[in-house]
Amino acid sequence: MLRSSQPLTGPNRKRCREDEQLLGTALGEEQRGFVIDTRSAQAAKQARMTGGGTEPKSSYPQWRRLHRPLERGRPLQESFAKLVEACNDPSASMDRWLGRLESCRWLSHVKAALSTACLAAQCMDREEASVLVHGAEGTDTTLLVTALAQVILDPSCRTLLGFQGLLEREWIEAGHPFHLRCARSAYSHARLKQEAPLFLLFLDCVWQLGRQFPFSLEFNERLLLTLFDNAYASAYGTFLCNNEKERCLCKVKESTLSLWGWLNQPAERKKYLNPLYSPNALVIWPSVEPQSIQLWQGLFFRWIRSSQYLDEAWAEIQRLVDSS
Amino acid sequence: LCHFFAQVENVRLLDRLSSRKAALGTLYLTATHVIFVENGSETRKEIWVLHSQISSIEKQATTATGCPLLIRCKNFQVIQLVIPQERDCHDIYISLIRLARPVKYEELYCFSFNPKLDKEEREQGWKLVDLNEEYNRMGIPNNYWQISDVNRDYGVCDSYPTEVYVPKSATAHIIVGSSKFRSRRRFPALSYYCKDNHASICRSSQPLSGFSARCLEDEQMLQAIRKANPGSNFIYVVDTRPKLNAMANRAAGKGYENEDNYSNIKFQFIGIENIHVMRNSLQKMLEVCELKSPSMSDFLWGLENSGWLKHIKAIMDAGIFIAKAVAEEGVSVLVHCSDGWDRTAQVCSVASLLLDPYYRTMKGFMVLIEKDWVSFGHKFNHRYGNLDGDPKEISPVIDQFIECVWQLMEQFPCAFEFNERFLIHIQHHIYSCQFGNFLCNSQKERRELKIQERTYSLWAHLWKNRADYLNPLYRSDHSQTQGTLHPRMAPCNFLYKFWSGMYNRFEKGLHPRQSVTDYLMAVKEETQQLEEELEVLRERLANLQESQLNDNKVKSKQQERSKQLGLSTSNNSLANTPQEYSNDLKSFPSRSPSQGDEEDSALILTQDNLKSSDPDLSANSDQESGVEDLSCRSPSGGGCLPSEDSGKDSDEAVFLAV
């Protein structure tokens, strides 16, 4: 699986031999590959006007392009803000709750993200084809898809350590602009232009996978919540800045502590383990039917409703597993 | 061999989610079932559907591939068949229509079902749930409440049981007088008594008050209820109908209690909609479930438009109100709706469940249903269509109650002794008519038909298989299981989830592939066994001199067991196949993945690996496929438990029917 940003085809349909060659190396003779473009066909076409575009079939004959538009940027942030508002609204009546939930569109975004990641995984696992994922910049929806696809495909990404490695690789080192994207979160009225909860969307999708495959993730919901917290505000330098270059300039590694260092301490680490975990060597294919996708109550109602009874249930599960 | 009414070959069974997955097989019609058996020697998928379960049959337009027939079941299974010849399809259609609409009770499966128990065992089965014992457990009879035989020949109210519990100060005269002032003669009677504070829940039907009618005895009856609670000087009267409906009833000479006429009552409307609204609500929700590849938007809007979860919440809120009145205020409550056998039953049983942890045990839950639904004359026949009847009487009343219980289980995972499967199987059997508990409309009718002598009790059957229905997280000494449950009333809209385990029960692709419940039960069982063994060992060690030898023997046995446990946990990770994420991939030649065959093989319901308690053979064990091996083991470590409504038992039914 490869990722990139959009090709700069432009309005004149420029070609780039090196790019074609590079992609060519990912495929064997007679093999076909898929390009998963996270923009709609129309948006991708329009991008040409501003110098971007898509891989033309004539220049990349072995690659088949699939468009799976995923929301990002301002609309995604709006979706998030609306959902949080709806959850916090004490006057919300049951009559209108589902409609309100729907109009936030958050769950639709979760469904779309999971579907696209599954598609990428399916191309690789079932069709045994290589996949190139890109949107426009290659820093948002692209990473969402590649990271999620790996959780689906690769059991090592489902271990606690493996998942951290995945985050390092596919989000941090790959240059997701955390500083811009995770600026103020849902309550802020600032509505910054560059803010968007892609990383939260990723965590939500991972939570969905954990719910559908309760034995397959080594880590629990608490880890996901901790990651969410630290992406926005952290005592550690892991999620600082927007890319490796900035982190270098700011001397992040020299002047801050790593979140992973703290998480992986034996005493801390066990809080994030899933008591039901049993290494599952196979690919986990989630259902993306609407009934299978649920609102992440642990996150969205975290401060609204006590999780006491569910916590007790998990404590009981831990107790049962420990005594066995 | 056995007799079938009809047999059609080369029938295709389609899968709703994946149009690619179709099974080819033979369709059989027997006196009691529709059966589909897949061709092929190894993977013989079988689906058995009782005629009682059939809700509707739809013959669709013939296409090039054949004649489609859609069977919708009351347990929400939807079977899509394609029959090659139109003539055959028509015949099956006509036959099914007749078979699914029995005219006499004797046509129902319960009269031919034979679980091979002797007369004594059958009787014992019926005695498992004893309501007299239950009222004794509540602490009755006592200074305030007593049993009354005023209805011993059903002379006062034919939909009530022969034994009713009333306040000590309610004389026969008062009861009879009150019954004449109540719709269907359903006078106020005791549903639940809280011995801690003497508050009670009573139930009745609406008073025939019209605009201004009064009845001295009825007013005395309510006073008697009030006086039976020394802790409070008033009672709540809760009308579970919307105010508008109740007012409209006044024009027909019925209505509700006027606070001016009844001393010391506080009147309250709760506003649960009637059976017609509920029937339509379910219908709309099922239409959403049948959508092909719905978007999140389609689903959420569809669910909202059905209003289903809103109704569930309304019932729950009513139960919470009553539970609060009893537990926190110590005030007695009289509940009614129109006839006092639908909404009243729902609300009283939800309230009881919240109040008393006994009803959250398996036995207690059976008792609860027996008390508030069966004995108090809920019209099972009319509501669930045992026999062909008025479609306007059909309504998912008990289904809603069962869902309320599930919603509570989701909120309080440690509080119930039983699990989701228990609820699903009860719902299944309410419609299956395989057992006699839920036949007819009243105790009177059931006794006339001699149900207990001619059929078997579901409760005995469930009790026998109770290991499958346990909740591993339940501990009777856990804080969640003590005392009253306190679900938040508002705002908790978001807490109500769509119950895909019930309404998409047969869609294997939708559910988590790995059952946490079964895994934890297996773990618990293993731990218990090991602990018991350890105890035995300790004793032996203390007693015997050749302890060394025995130690070695047992160690290898223990290793074997833990190896088995290890084995089965890794079996959890059974492959599953991806659903259709994209139409674009169809054009590529895809390998037929071996993993896909494994998933299908998990669906195979041969007698050997059937979940013992699964009433419906098409109910999948896919959810539990990971722990199949372990769950098949009985506590004694033997082979698989004999399957319940297995293929062979049902063959017997076929023989018998002929």
List descriptors.
heterodimer, A: 324 residues, mainly alpha, 16 helices, 5% strand, globular, B: 658 residues, alpha+beta, PH-domain like, 2 domains, seven-stranded antiparallel sheet, five-stranded mixed sheet, 23 helices, 41% helix, disordered C terminus
C-alpha Rg of chain A, in Å? 21 Å
Q: How large, in whole angstroms, is the Cα Rg of chain B?
A: 27 Å
Tally of separate helices of chain B: 23
Nearest-integer average pLDDT of chain B: 83
Beta-strand portion of chain B reads 5-15%
What order do the SSEs of chain A take from the amino end to the carboxyl end, as H and E?
EHEHEHHHEHHHHHHHHHHH
What percent strand of chain A? 5-15%
**What is the rounded distance between the termini of chain A?**
40 Å
GO cellular component, one term (chain A): cytoplasm
Protein name (chain A): MTMR9 protein
InterPro entries (chain A): Myotubularin (IPR030564), Myotubularin-like_Pase_dom (IPR010569), Prot-tyrosine_phosphatase-like (IPR029021)
Domain Myotubularin phosphatase (chain A): 1-300
